[in-house]
Design a protein that fits this description.
436 residues, alpha+beta, BirA Bifunctional Protein, domain 2, Rossmann fold, nine-stranded mixed beta sheet
């Protein structure tokens, strides 16, 4: 993409309303703009990152055996009244009355709707297990939306729902999602720490939050230093025992919020370190909390109706954009992991007034594209200093600078954004090096 044709409204100054790094940098890098309190328009650069995160989440859900559907944002209040959560959920739920006086709501989550879909279509234990997921916008009317996409009112979320015949089978489904989450966050360039968590309004008695450590995290957490060296599983085990072994390994080290730690100081864990945690995923197993009141049952092997055992599994897709920035930035801007970067390479023409330099940059741009490398080409007339600052701000993994001196020497300057290392590479070799 040529920058001269792109829509990238960057800002030189820090916006006054931005209190944390991710909010500040997403506004300055032209990724989002606020439309109303806690509601954002995703501009082209931000949308590319959002879609890449979404695709990684989708691939790992598919790999774990979950099946994608798409449920609506608006749900009937009748289903929530049936489960008993309509009044209990509180003021965060945005309630709507249509022209016919029917009560609806903008979904904050989907347990009721997916249970209704399941009970209408699945009637035998032979059709189990099932895990259905979707990636859809949610709305929770936060009393104080802040920190940009980290605590907005409208947000993109992946939520999955498992259905099993027995509690044992349900825990196996829970474990499969636990492992899928470890793989997902690793692919996003994040070190995620699973921590036993309160189930809150979702219900049940088995739940884990997945936290990433960043200076601006919402709460102080204490965890074994061992977590920092643990590697996510490369392969997903094909047996329940294999899944359980991974879950046991990752839940054995100690992790707790400040409140949990204060109440459990006798745990005598390994070498503890503290940090600030940002929640990016939450999984639950809640048995028949929804299937029982909503009569979601199947015919069991004995011919009798049995309420299915359920779990739900959420990942904040839009929240992850901010979370990754919180975990990966410096004083100059964002540092994107290559897996989610909007473009892999930023190409800068430092001799835009020179026809020869422009021709060489145009040729290199075409060669990078032909090699399948995503490249943002700064072909504007801006000065070199502004171009370098802009590239550092938007955080692409690699920067290529080509000016009159490089053209004369047959070389470009290649910069690694994460390390800051600069090397001179022959123009003829640069595409092959970046494609490797």
């Amino acid at each position: 993409m040529r920058l001269s044709h792109y829509f990238l409204p960057t800002l030189k100054e820090n916006p006054a309303e931005a209190q944390i790094a991710s909010h500040r940098l997403m506004l300055r890098a032209g990724m989002v703009r606020q439309g109303a309190a806690g509601i954002y328009t995703w501009l082209p650069l931000g949308l590319r990152v959002l879609k890449k995160i979404e695709q990684i989440v989708r691939e790992e859900q598919d790999r774990a055996g979950a099946i994608e559907v798409l449920m609506p944002t608006i749900q009937s209040a009748d289903l929530w009244q049936e489960s008993g959560r309509y009044e209990d959920y509180g003021k965060e739920m945005l309630r709507i009355t249509d022209r016919h006086g029917r009560e609806s709501l903008y979904g904050p989550t989907n347990e009721e709707l997916i249970t209704d879909i399941f009970r209408r279509e699945v009637h035998s234990y032979k059709d189990l297990p099932k895990n259905l997921y979707h990636i859809q916008w949610k709305f929770r009317d936060e009393i104080r939306p802040r920190f940009g996409v980290m605590r907005g009112r409208e947000f993109l979320m992946k939520d999955a729902y498992s259905f099993d015949l027995t509690a044992e089978d349900g825990v196996n489904s829970y474990n499969a999602m636990f492992v899928a989450y470890l793989r997902t966050f690793a692919r996003l360039g994040l070190k995620a720490i699973p921590m036993r968590a309160d189930t809150g309004p979702i219900g049940g008695d088995l739940s884990h939050e997945f936290l990433i450590i960043a200076d601006t995290g919402e709460s102080e957490v204490f965890f074994d230093k061992e977590f920092l060296t643990m590697e996510a599983p490369v392969d997903t085990p094909d047996s329940d025992a294999g899944l359980q072994k991974i879950v046991d390994t990752w839940t054995k080290p100690y992790a707790a919020t400040e409140e949990m730690h204060d109440a459990d100081k006798a745990a005598g864990a390994g070498e503890l370190v503290s940090g600030r945690g940002i929640e990016v995923g939450h999984i639950f197993f809640f048995g028949d909390k929804y299937s029982k009141p909503m009569k979601a049952s199947v015919q069991g092997p004995d011919g009798k109706p049995t309420n299915v055992q359920m779990g739900s599994y959420g990942i904040g897709v839009s929240r992850l954009v901010g979370g990754i920035i919180e975990a990966s930035h410096d004083e100059n801007g964002i540092i994107w992991p290559e897996s989610v970067a909007p473009y892999k390479v930023g190409l800068m023409n430092l001799g835009a007034k020179s026809e020869d330099c422009t021709a060489a940059c145009d040729t290199l741009y075409a060669e990078l594209q032909a090699a399948g490398i995503e490249v943002l080409y700064d072909d504007t007339k801006d000065g070199a200093g502004a171009k370098f600052a802009n590239m550092d701000l938007i955080g692409l993994p690699w920067q290529i600078a080509l000016g009159p001196r490089g053209l004369k020497n047959g070389a470009v300057e290649l910069k690694n954004r994460a390390t800051g290392e600069k090397t001179e590479v022959a123009t003829a070799d640069i595409v092959k090096q970046l494609a490797a």
